[in-house]
Write a structure and sequence with these properties.
With 95 residues, this protein is mainly α. It is built from three helices and no strands. It has a domain of 65 residues.
Length: 95
């Protein structure tokens, strides 16, 4: 099992961070495509609303991913601590 901090120091890309970056890039692409729609005054307001909605969804997704990552880190830290404690107990029992 690899330590997440070690992966970060080696320059690896966290898959969750990559997913969030992809979502942001996708939202930007939707925004660029929306520029063509904005040329028509009638659809301008509809396009602006759709872009705002997409932006809000990306922000919500980012916050959700960050929250889940933090929960995962806490669980891993708890598990690592428990394994270390168990290893110490086994070491003491062997002596």
């Amino acid at each position: 099992m690899t330590d997440q901090n070690q992966n970060d120091n080696k320059g690896g890309i966290n898959p969750a961070v990559a997913a969030v970056a992809g979502a942001v890039a996708g939202a930007a692409a939707v925004g660029i495509a929306g520029v063509a729609v904005l040329a028509n005054n009638k659809t301008r307001k509809q396009a602006e609303k759709a872009i705002d909605d997409a932006k809000d969804k990306v922000i919500e997704m980012k916050e959700s991913v960050e929250e889940k990552l933090e929960e995962g880190k806490e669980k891993v830290n708890t598990l690592v601590s428990a394994v270390k404690d168990a290893a110490q107990d086994v070491k003491k029992a062997v002596k």
